[in-house]
Write a structure and sequence with these properties.
alpha+beta; Glutaredoxin; 4-stranded mixed beta sheet; 116 residues; single chain
Length: 116
C-alpha cells in the first residue's frame, strides 16, 4: 500500500501517524504542508473527501485562528480556504491519502482503519 501524508514534523500526532504507517510497511510520501501547502483545488478535494466541512478542518490551537477572527460566521468557505492557503498552519493535520480513503488521522490510532 502507498499513502501520502500531509505532515508537520513538529506535531506529535503527525509523527505518530507516520510511525504507524511505516511500521505497517506502508510506502509513505511525506508532504511537509507548512513548506509545500496544497494548491487550492487539492485542498478543496481533501476537505470534501474528509467530510468535516471547511470549518471542521481549521486548526485552532497554535495558529492565528483567534487573532484572525475565524470563528465569525461572516466568513464563507471560500474565504476560510483563502486563510488556510495564506496560513497553512490553519490546516488540521495529519491528512492521510490512500487509494482507498482520505482521512484526517486524529487521533493517530484512527489511521489503522485504512490499514485493514
Amino acid at each position: 500500500m502507498r499513502a501520502t501524508i500531509y505532515h508537520n514534523p513538529q506535531c506529535g500526532t503527525s509523527r505518530n501517524v507516520l510511525g504507524i504507517l511505516r511500521e505497517a510497511g506502508v510506502e509513505a510520501t511525506v508532504i511537509e504542508y507548512l513548506k509545500t501547502p496544497p494548491a487550492r483545488a487539492e485542498l478543496e478535494r481533501l476537505i470534501k473527501a474528509i467530510g468535516k466541512g471547511v470549518r471542521g478542518m481549521l486548526r485552532k490551537r497554535g495558529t492565528p485562528y483567534e487573532e484572525l477572527g475565524l470563528d465569525d460566521p461572516k466568513w464563507t468557505d471560500a474565504q476560510l480556504i483563502d486563510f488556510m492557503l495564506a496560513h497553512p498552519i490553519l490546516i488540521e493535520r495529519p491528512i492521510v491519502v490512500t487509494d482507498k480513503q482520505i482521512m484526517l488521522a486524529r487521533p493517530s490510532e484512527s489511521v489503522r482503519e485504512i490499514l485493514a
